Amino acid sequence: MKKGKRPFWDGFAPGLHLRRVGSRPPGFSAFVLRGGIGRTAVINGATHGDEYEGPTVLRELVASINPRTLRGTLVIVPVLHESAFFAGSSCHPADGSNLARAFPGNPRGNQAERVASLFLGTVLRHADFYIDLHSGGVAYDFLPWSGYLITGRPEIDGIQRDMAACFDDYWCCGSPRLEGRTLSSAADEGIPAIYTESRGGGGVHPDDRKALHRGLRNFLIRFGFLKGPAPRLRKVPIRLAANSDETQIQHPHPAPSDGLFIPAVSAGEHVRKNALLGVVCPMNEESDISVRAKHRGSVVAIRRRRSVRARDNLATVVLLAP
Ligand SMILES: [Zn+2]
After folding, report:
1. Vertex 56 angle, CA 54 and 62, to 5°
2. Nearest to 173 by CA among 90, 231, 236, 99
3. Where does a domain end: 180, 205, 240?
4. What confidence score (pLDDT) does residue 243 get?
5. Which residues sit with Cβ closer than 5 angstroms to ligand 1, an ion?
6. What is the pLDDT of residues 48-67, one digit of tens each?
7. For position 130, which CATH number holds?
8. Are residues 139 and 250 part of one domain?
9. Distance of CA 228 from the midpoint of ligand 1 (Å)
10. Domain membership of residue 77 as a residue range
11. Most buried among 48, 143, 149, 309, using CB within 10 Å?
12. Report field, pTM of the whole predicted structure over 0.85
Protein backbone atom coordinates (compact mmCIF):
# COMPACT_ATOMS: atom_id res chain seq x y z
CA MET A 1 0.00 0.00 0.00
CA LYS A 2 1.32 3.41 -0.89
CA LYS A 3 2.15 5.99 1.71
CA GLY A 4 0.24 9.18 2.38
CA LYS A 5 -3.05 10.28 0.87
CA ARG A 6 -5.07 7.90 -1.25
CA PRO A 7 -5.02 8.46 -5.01
CA PHE A 8 -7.90 10.42 -6.54
CA TRP A 9 -9.03 7.34 -8.47
CA ASP A 10 -9.54 5.34 -5.26
CA GLY A 11 -13.20 4.35 -5.27
CA PHE A 12 -13.66 4.83 -9.04
CA ALA A 13 -15.95 2.16 -10.50
CA PRO A 14 -14.54 -0.23 -13.10
CA GLY A 15 -14.47 1.47 -16.51
CA LEU A 16 -12.87 4.43 -18.24
CA HIS A 17 -12.73 7.84 -16.55
CA LEU A 18 -11.28 11.14 -17.76
CA ARG A 19 -10.28 13.62 -15.07
CA ARG A 20 -8.77 17.08 -15.02
CA VAL A 21 -5.98 17.29 -12.42
CA GLY A 22 -5.20 20.76 -11.12
CA SER A 23 -6.28 24.01 -12.67
CA ARG A 24 -4.61 25.26 -15.77
CA PRO A 25 -1.80 25.93 -15.66
CA PRO A 26 -0.39 23.89 -14.09
CA GLY A 27 -2.73 21.06 -14.84
CA PHE A 28 -3.20 18.03 -17.07
CA SER A 29 -5.85 15.54 -18.12
CA ALA A 30 -5.64 11.93 -17.01
CA PHE A 31 -7.42 8.86 -18.32
CA VAL A 32 -8.03 6.28 -15.60
CA LEU A 33 -8.72 2.76 -16.83
CA ARG A 34 -10.07 0.90 -13.89
CA GLY A 35 -10.07 -2.89 -14.13
CA GLY A 36 -10.18 -5.62 -11.50
CA ILE A 37 -8.15 -5.52 -8.31
CA GLY A 38 -4.44 -5.23 -9.02
CA ARG A 39 -1.51 -2.90 -9.32
CA THR A 40 -1.29 0.57 -10.85
CA ALA A 41 0.76 1.62 -13.86
CA VAL A 42 1.23 5.29 -14.71
CA ILE A 43 2.23 6.21 -18.27
CA ASN A 44 2.62 9.71 -19.71
CA GLY A 45 3.75 11.51 -22.84
CA ALA A 46 4.87 15.08 -23.56
CA THR A 47 7.02 15.70 -20.51
CA HIS A 48 8.60 17.74 -23.30
CA GLY A 49 5.97 19.64 -25.29
CA ASP A 50 7.31 18.97 -28.81
CA GLU A 51 7.41 15.15 -28.57
CA TYR A 52 4.32 13.76 -30.26
CA GLU A 53 4.80 9.98 -30.19
CA GLY A 54 3.67 9.57 -26.56
CA PRO A 55 0.49 11.67 -26.83
CA THR A 56 -0.54 9.95 -30.08
CA VAL A 57 0.12 6.36 -29.02
CA LEU A 58 -1.35 6.82 -25.53
CA ARG A 59 -4.66 8.13 -26.90
CA GLU A 60 -4.77 5.08 -29.16
CA LEU A 61 -3.88 2.80 -26.24
CA VAL A 62 -6.75 4.15 -24.13
CA ALA A 63 -9.18 3.54 -27.01
CA SER A 64 -7.87 -0.01 -27.54
CA ILE A 65 -8.30 -1.39 -24.01
CA ASN A 66 -11.58 -2.71 -22.69
CA PRO A 67 -11.40 -2.09 -18.91
CA ARG A 68 -13.30 -5.36 -18.38
CA THR A 69 -10.27 -7.25 -19.63
CA LEU A 70 -7.91 -5.29 -17.39
CA ARG A 71 -6.47 -6.31 -14.05
CA GLY A 72 -5.46 -3.31 -11.97
CA THR A 73 -5.48 0.36 -12.93
CA LEU A 74 -3.83 2.32 -15.74
CA VAL A 75 -3.43 6.06 -15.28
CA ILE A 76 -2.54 7.62 -18.62
CA VAL A 77 -1.58 11.25 -19.14
CA PRO A 78 -1.05 11.80 -22.88
CA VAL A 79 0.20 15.38 -22.45
CA LEU A 80 1.91 16.17 -19.14
CA HIS A 81 3.43 19.59 -19.89
CA GLU A 82 0.50 21.34 -21.57
CA SER A 83 1.96 24.87 -21.71
CA ALA A 84 5.03 23.57 -23.58
CA PHE A 85 2.84 21.39 -25.80
CA PHE A 86 0.60 24.26 -26.92
CA ALA A 87 3.66 26.44 -27.53
CA GLY A 88 5.16 23.65 -29.70
CA SER A 89 8.31 23.77 -27.62
CA SER A 90 10.26 21.37 -25.47
CA CYS A 91 10.19 23.60 -22.38
CA HIS A 92 7.83 26.16 -20.87
CA PRO A 93 7.44 29.13 -23.27
CA ALA A 94 7.50 31.83 -20.56
CA ASP A 95 10.44 30.90 -18.34
CA GLY A 96 12.13 28.12 -20.38
CA SER A 97 11.81 25.67 -17.48
CA ASN A 98 12.36 22.03 -18.40
CA LEU A 99 9.93 19.55 -16.83
CA ALA A 100 12.52 16.78 -17.20
CA ARG A 101 14.83 18.71 -14.85
CA ALA A 102 12.17 19.98 -12.42
CA PHE A 103 11.40 16.94 -10.23
CA PRO A 104 10.47 16.58 -7.39
CA GLY A 105 9.11 20.05 -8.10
CA ASN A 106 7.83 22.87 -5.96
CA PRO A 107 4.26 24.28 -5.87
CA ARG A 108 5.72 27.81 -5.65
CA GLY A 109 8.68 27.23 -7.96
CA ASN A 110 9.14 27.90 -11.68
CA GLN A 111 6.47 26.83 -14.17
CA ALA A 112 7.83 23.31 -14.70
CA GLU A 113 8.42 22.76 -10.98
CA ARG A 114 4.73 23.46 -10.36
CA VAL A 115 3.70 20.79 -12.87
CA ALA A 116 6.26 18.36 -11.41
CA SER A 117 4.99 18.85 -7.88
CA LEU A 118 1.35 18.40 -8.95
CA PHE A 119 2.08 15.25 -10.99
CA LEU A 120 4.28 13.66 -8.33
CA GLY A 121 1.80 14.31 -5.51
CA THR A 122 -1.42 13.37 -7.28
CA VAL A 123 -0.36 10.63 -9.71
CA LEU A 124 3.22 9.37 -9.84
CA ARG A 125 3.57 8.70 -6.10
CA HIS A 126 0.73 6.17 -6.31
CA ALA A 127 2.23 4.09 -9.13
CA ASP A 128 3.57 0.56 -8.88
CA PHE A 129 5.16 0.96 -12.33
CA TYR A 130 5.95 4.10 -14.31
CA ILE A 131 6.71 4.75 -18.00
CA ASP A 132 7.64 8.18 -19.45
CA LEU A 133 7.46 8.39 -23.27
CA HIS A 134 9.94 10.84 -24.85
CA SER A 135 11.49 11.40 -28.28
CA GLY A 136 13.91 13.57 -30.21
CA GLY A 137 11.26 16.30 -30.38
CA VAL A 138 11.35 18.76 -33.26
CA ALA A 139 15.08 19.47 -32.88
CA TYR A 140 16.57 15.92 -33.12
CA ASP A 141 16.34 12.57 -34.86
CA PHE A 142 17.13 9.66 -32.55
CA LEU A 143 17.99 6.00 -33.00
CA PRO A 144 15.22 4.99 -30.59
CA TRP A 145 15.93 3.42 -27.22
CA SER A 146 14.33 2.48 -23.93
CA GLY A 147 16.16 3.20 -20.72
CA TYR A 148 16.21 3.39 -16.98
CA LEU A 149 18.24 4.88 -14.15
CA ILE A 150 20.30 2.34 -12.26
CA THR A 151 19.20 2.59 -8.61
CA GLY A 152 21.64 0.07 -7.14
CA ARG A 153 18.68 -1.78 -5.63
CA PRO A 154 18.66 -5.17 -7.38
CA GLU A 155 14.92 -5.78 -6.82
CA ILE A 156 14.07 -2.50 -8.62
CA ASP A 157 16.80 -2.62 -11.27
CA GLY A 158 15.74 -6.15 -12.27
CA ILE A 159 12.13 -5.04 -12.84
CA GLN A 160 13.29 -1.94 -14.74
CA ARG A 161 15.45 -4.12 -17.00
CA ASP A 162 12.44 -6.36 -17.69
CA MET A 163 10.22 -3.33 -18.39
CA ALA A 164 12.73 -1.79 -20.80
CA ALA A 165 13.17 -5.15 -22.56
CA CYS A 166 9.45 -5.09 -23.46
CA PHE A 167 10.26 -2.34 -26.00
CA ASP A 168 12.21 -4.78 -28.11
CA ASP A 169 12.32 -2.73 -31.32
CA TYR A 170 14.57 -0.30 -29.46
CA TRP A 171 18.08 -0.58 -28.05
CA CYS A 172 18.36 -0.37 -24.29
CA CYS A 173 20.27 2.04 -22.08
CA GLY A 174 20.86 1.87 -18.33
CA SER A 175 22.42 5.01 -16.86
CA PRO A 176 23.50 6.28 -13.46
CA ARG A 177 21.06 8.43 -11.53
CA LEU A 178 20.37 11.86 -13.04
CA GLU A 179 18.67 14.54 -10.95
CA GLY A 180 15.42 16.33 -11.74
CA ARG A 181 13.92 13.57 -13.86
CA THR A 182 10.51 11.97 -13.49
CA LEU A 183 12.55 8.79 -13.08
CA SER A 184 14.66 10.14 -10.22
CA SER A 185 11.46 10.94 -8.29
CA ALA A 186 10.11 7.47 -9.11
CA ALA A 187 13.38 6.01 -7.74
CA ASP A 188 13.00 8.07 -4.54
CA GLU A 189 9.54 6.55 -4.11
CA GLY A 190 10.83 3.00 -4.82
CA ILE A 191 8.81 2.74 -8.04
CA PRO A 192 10.31 0.78 -10.96
CA ALA A 193 10.39 3.19 -13.89
CA ILE A 194 11.58 3.41 -17.48
CA TYR A 195 11.55 5.94 -20.30
CA THR A 196 11.53 5.54 -24.05
CA GLU A 197 13.12 7.84 -26.63
CA SER A 198 11.44 7.55 -30.05
CA ARG A 199 12.72 9.13 -33.28
CA GLY A 200 11.21 12.58 -32.98
CA GLY A 201 11.79 14.95 -35.86
CA GLY A 202 8.48 16.65 -35.12
CA GLY A 203 6.14 13.84 -36.10
CA VAL A 204 5.27 10.23 -35.37
CA HIS A 205 7.18 7.73 -37.50
CA PRO A 206 5.03 4.66 -38.36
CA ASP A 207 7.81 2.38 -37.03
CA ASP A 208 7.68 4.16 -33.66
CA ARG A 209 3.92 3.92 -33.52
CA LYS A 210 4.23 0.16 -34.03
CA ALA A 211 7.19 -0.19 -31.66
CA LEU A 212 5.50 1.72 -28.83
CA HIS A 213 2.22 -0.18 -29.17
CA ARG A 214 4.12 -3.47 -29.21
CA GLY A 215 6.23 -2.44 -26.21
CA LEU A 216 3.28 -1.22 -24.15
CA ARG A 217 1.31 -4.38 -24.90
CA ASN A 218 4.31 -6.55 -23.98
CA PHE A 219 4.60 -4.60 -20.71
CA LEU A 220 0.89 -4.91 -19.88
CA ILE A 221 0.94 -8.68 -20.45
CA ARG A 222 4.33 -9.31 -18.84
CA PHE A 223 3.29 -7.51 -15.64
CA GLY A 224 -0.20 -9.01 -15.42
CA PHE A 225 -2.44 -6.09 -16.47
CA LEU A 226 -3.71 -7.89 -19.58
CA LYS A 227 -4.10 -11.57 -20.36
CA GLY A 228 -2.27 -13.01 -23.32
CA PRO A 229 0.48 -15.39 -24.33
CA ALA A 230 3.81 -14.46 -22.74
CA PRO A 231 5.52 -12.06 -25.16
CA ARG A 232 8.43 -13.52 -27.10
CA LEU A 233 10.90 -10.68 -26.87
CA ARG A 234 13.65 -10.02 -29.38
CA LYS A 235 17.13 -9.59 -27.96
CA VAL A 236 18.31 -5.98 -28.23
CA PRO A 237 21.67 -4.24 -27.98
CA ILE A 238 22.22 -2.88 -24.50
CA ARG A 239 24.46 -0.11 -23.19
CA LEU A 240 24.90 -0.17 -19.44
CA ALA A 241 26.83 2.56 -17.72
CA ALA A 242 27.54 1.43 -14.17
CA ASN A 243 29.12 4.73 -13.11
CA SER A 244 29.55 8.25 -14.39
CA ASP A 245 32.98 7.49 -15.92
CA GLU A 246 31.39 4.93 -18.14
CA THR A 247 28.87 7.40 -19.50
CA GLN A 248 31.88 8.91 -21.28
CA ILE A 249 31.38 6.09 -23.77
CA GLN A 250 28.36 8.10 -24.86
CA HIS A 251 29.77 11.12 -26.71
CA PRO A 252 27.87 14.34 -27.26
CA HIS A 253 29.23 16.78 -29.86
CA PRO A 254 28.47 20.41 -28.97
CA ALA A 255 28.20 23.13 -31.63
CA PRO A 256 31.45 25.13 -31.82
CA SER A 257 29.57 28.32 -32.67
CA ASP A 258 26.14 29.82 -33.42
CA GLY A 259 25.16 29.16 -37.01
CA LEU A 260 23.55 26.92 -39.59
CA PHE A 261 24.12 23.18 -39.09
CA ILE A 262 24.34 20.86 -42.08
CA PRO A 263 24.38 17.22 -40.94
CA ALA A 264 26.48 14.66 -42.83
CA VAL A 265 25.11 11.52 -41.13
CA SER A 266 21.74 10.05 -40.16
CA ALA A 267 20.51 8.47 -36.92
CA GLY A 268 21.54 4.80 -36.80
CA GLU A 269 24.63 5.22 -38.98
CA HIS A 270 27.86 3.67 -37.73
CA VAL A 271 30.79 6.09 -37.80
CA ARG A 272 34.54 5.77 -37.25
CA LYS A 273 36.52 8.04 -34.99
CA ASN A 274 37.02 11.44 -36.73
CA ALA A 275 34.26 10.80 -39.28
CA LEU A 276 32.53 13.99 -40.43
CA LEU A 277 29.22 14.41 -38.57
CA GLY A 278 28.33 17.73 -40.15
CA VAL A 279 29.41 21.33 -40.55
CA VAL A 280 28.43 24.51 -38.74
CA CYS A 281 28.33 27.67 -40.87
CA PRO A 282 28.71 30.70 -38.59
CA MET A 283 26.67 33.76 -39.56
CA ASN A 284 29.58 36.20 -39.84
CA GLU A 285 32.39 34.00 -41.20
CA GLU A 286 32.95 32.58 -44.65
CA SER A 287 34.49 29.26 -43.65
CA ASP A 288 32.51 26.36 -42.22
CA ILE A 289 33.55 24.44 -39.12
CA SER A 290 33.64 20.65 -39.41
CA VAL A 291 32.32 18.59 -36.52
CA ARG A 292 33.97 15.16 -36.29
CA ALA A 293 33.18 12.02 -34.27
CA LYS A 294 35.18 11.84 -31.04
CA HIS A 295 34.77 8.10 -31.00
CA ARG A 296 33.60 5.27 -33.21
CA GLY A 297 30.06 4.04 -32.63
CA SER A 298 26.44 4.46 -33.66
CA VAL A 299 24.88 7.87 -34.17
CA VAL A 300 21.94 7.76 -31.73
CA ALA A 301 21.07 11.46 -31.94
CA ILE A 302 21.55 13.96 -34.76
CA ARG A 303 20.41 17.58 -34.78
CA ARG A 304 17.48 18.13 -37.13
CA ARG A 305 16.73 21.79 -36.45
CA ARG A 306 19.25 23.60 -38.62
CA SER A 307 19.66 26.74 -36.54
CA VAL A 308 22.09 26.10 -33.68
CA ARG A 309 23.53 28.03 -30.79
CA ALA A 310 27.05 27.43 -29.54
CA ARG A 311 27.15 24.37 -27.26
CA ASP A 312 23.81 22.91 -28.48
CA ASN A 313 24.38 19.20 -28.94
CA LEU A 314 24.69 18.31 -32.65
CA ALA A 315 25.16 14.55 -32.42
CA THR A 316 25.58 11.75 -29.88
CA VAL A 317 27.67 8.70 -30.71
CA VAL A 318 27.33 5.55 -28.59
CA LEU A 319 29.20 2.26 -28.64
CA LEU A 320 26.42 -0.34 -28.73
CA ALA A 321 27.14 -3.93 -27.88
CA PRO A 322 25.90 -6.23 -30.67
ZN1 LIG B 1 11.96 14.44 -23.93
Report:
1. 95
2. 236
3. 240
4. 56
5. 48, 134
6. 999 999 999 999 999 999 99
7. 3.40.630.10
8. no
9. 31
10. 15-240
11. 48
12. yes
